[in-house]
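Chapter summary example.
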Amino acid sequence: MYFIVSFNSDFVTVQLKKKESLLQAITDSMSNTSCQSTELEACRDESAALKLKIIAIASILLAGVAGIAIPLIGRHRKFLSTDGSLFVAAKAFAAGVILATGFVHMLSDGTEALSDPCLPKYPWSKFPFPGFFAMIASLVTLLVDFVGTQYYERKQGLARGSPEEQGRVGSLEADSESGITQVVEGKVFGEEEGGGMHIVGMHAHAAHHRHSHPHGQDGCDGLLRNRGHEHGHSHGHEHGFGAGEDDSGLRHVVVSQILELGIVSHSVIIGLSLGVSQSPCTIRPLIAALSFHQFFEGFALGGCISQAEFKTLSTTIMACFFAITTPAGIGIGTAIASVYDPYSPAALVIEGILDSLSAGILVYMALVDLIAADFLSKRMSCNFRLQLLSYFMLFLGAGLMASLAIWA
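The structure predicted for these 408 residues follows.
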């Protein structure tokens, strides 16, 4: 018995010593400050960098304002209305830009920061933290998306539907055991008026496709007839959401707010990174890349805000908040450039985690709330020409944004 106790005591002592040495190694590595690239040091020019930062603030601000203003102002113009094919194609391009931003830029930057040789191998090299943080961010965004939708439904009293609507839902649940999906007034249950899909309606949408291919053309003809009927009666109901647009309006409210959260979170990081840099070699290619990126992110966000039909004050606040975030980040980064070391281990860890979280949010929003909402809609499936144009614009946007990684 004494031998066993002595053995266990020695084992615990050895483990404690290992933990102490590990903590000491992490502490020593975190205090390491000699992480800056010699190549960037050779290109250091504070006065030239300051001039480029001023140009970057003006360029990115103008690009952001233009991007978000076009869909907000254009909703009153026929050729840029949210129901037009041009808007759908431009939104597909913007969705591709956001998707590439998440996968190619943010996730890559997060991986680069968390795998920097300045950081200790344990734990940062022993586990794929960038992908893990991106996954957590996507799941949390899904939860917020769902809870936000439920909140707005209850807030507007939509959770307590009319007895007729409850009867329709009940009959749908009864029919679901036999694999039959109910179609109400030419729409799949869960499909929005504007062609998008509510999260909980996607399964009904998929089931509808499994059982409706023989009658696909009839469904498209019905959709066209419904659109014509709605257009004929829309003049007297321009304000607020109609009975068939409640889910659509609520959905766009939630989507626009979460999309702005994801865009703003990584815009701050991008602005700070550019602002603290004193290297013209780094700043110069970022000006064009970030202006391009800001314009199309603004277009996607502006489209969602336009479809949500916020009040004028709320729309203005959201648009201004988006437009000034990156320039404000550049300004803050410029102000703290003399005291902030972006190559310190603590800064690398914070940047890597935030980049990875932003990547998860952007990928979720691009795939679920922008791409799936439009590309799985009946409107898209019934218009082959619109399908070709939208897929082309989606791949074009993703490809162009991904190619910018060569320079920035």
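To summarize the output: The radius of gyration is 26 Å.
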